[in-house]
Amino acid sequence: MQDLNAAGLLARVMGWQQPQMVQDHVPDLQLLAYYKYDDYQRFGPGRRFIESLALWLNRLDPEDRAAALELVESKLVFFSDREVSHLVEMAYPDLIVQERLRLVAEEYGLPMHKVGELSRHARFKELRLKGTSNNAG
Predict the structure, then answer these.
(1) How far apart are CA 120 and CA 113, in angstroms?
(2) Cβ distance 4 to 21 under 8 Å?
(3) Once rounded to an integer, what is the mean pLDDT over residues 38-62?
C-alpha cells in the first residue's frame, strides 16, 4: 500500500496524467529503492525512497523536475556504509601502502622491489604514523 501511495505522490508531483508514465518510471525506481536506498541508514524512519524522491522533486521548479528525475534514474550513484568500509579496506593496502613505499624508495634512492627494506625504513614508519594520527582526528 505504501508503494502505491508513494507512486501516486510522485505522479502528482511530476504532473503525470497517464498511468503509462507511472509504469514507465516507478518499477525501476522501486527496484533501486529495494536494492539500495530503503536500507540506507540516513533515511528518516518510516520514509521510503520514492516518497523522499517525490518530496525532493516537489521543492524544485516544475520545469526542472523531469531533468532531476532523469539524473536520479541514470546518474545517481549510492554507496552504502558497508561499501565505503570495503573500499577503505581495499584502498589502504593496494593504494596507500604502495604509494608510501614508492615515496620512501624515491626519497632514499632504494629499489621498489626491496619491499621488506622499504617497509622497515624509519621514513615508512613515520608516514604510517602520520597517516594514522591524521585519520583519528
Answers:
(1) 13
(2) no
(3) 79
- Going by C-beta distance under 8 Å and a sequence separation of 6 or more, which residues neighbour residue 50? 3, 6, 7, 9, 10, 26, 29, 30, 33
Q: Is the full-model pTM beyond 0.85?
A: no
Q: How far is Cα 65 from Cα 57, in angstroms, rounded to an integer?
A: 6
Q: How far is CA 69 from the centre of its chain?
A: 18
Alpha-carbon torsion angle 116, 122, 124, 128, nearest 10:
120
C-alpha 77/C-alpha 45 separation (Å) is 22
Residue type, 25: H
Tell me the pLDDT tens digit for each residue of 6-36. Answer: 888 899 999 998 889 888 988 888 887 777 7
C-alpha cell at 66: 523531469
Return all residues near 36 (Cβ < 8 A) that are at least 6 apart: 78, 80
Which residue type sits at 98? Q
- Cα separation, 22 vs 38, whole angstroms: 20
